[in-house]
Amino acid sequence: MNRVIHWFGQLRQDLGSREHKALSTFLRFIIVEKAIKSIVLFVLAFSIFPIFSAETVLLARQLARQSHLFSNARFVTSFIRFLNQTREQRLLLFSIFFLGWGLLELVEAVGIFKRRRWAEYLAVVTASLFIPIEIRTVAIRFTMEKLGFLVFNIILVYYFIHARHLFRFHR
Fold first, then answer.
1. How many helices (H) and strands (E) does the chain have?
2. How many CB atoms lie within 10 A of CB 5?
């Protein structure tokens, strides 16, 4: 609980200050989140690349059933079934989409780490695009996880818009 209080205190201090010499805790969190998301998207892009065989799908199903790493095994099974029923051209498109999205997340993470103004605007635009989708998702089927993603994106957009001067001194 103390860490959460410290994190919000750091966020409030960052929003109120004019100079940012070191990366704040919130910026570090954003960088790590975007880097992890890009890695997951790269793995997803290369895992659905159209090289599936029947044996690969069966192995993935068995792994999904036996593994305790997945919190929602039904989703994993449905996703594998979807991949099994999808044509190779569509899988290639999905793979390219996830690869591009992962690249975008990685570029954002590096840009924010290097304190580039374009990365600030890119982060605001990409986070803003997901807010309406997340609001609809939370309204249709509420879970704390979905609400957490929505709140995080709202805080991220607010942080960058309010602290717009954040990268001014580091061009």
1. 7, 0
2. 9
pLDDT value, residue 19: 45
DSSP 8-class letter at 170: -
Phi/psi of residue 113, nearest 5 degrees: -60, -40
Give residue for tokens 């029923």: 85
| 119: number of Cβ within 10 Å | 21
Q: Domain coordinates of the chain in residue numbers?
A: 24-114, 115-171
Containing H/E element for 115?
A: none
What are the Cα distances from residue 132, in Å, to 15, 44, 84, 124, 151? 25, 24, 31, 14, 12
Token pair 């609980």 in the structure block, residue: 1
Whole-prediction pTM: 0.64
- Sign (positive or negative) of CA dihedral 23, 127, 75, 50: negative
17-38: pLDDT as tens digits: 444 456 788 888 999 999 999 9
Cα(41)–Cα(166) distance, integer angstroms: 28
Cβ contact 48:96 at 8 Å: no
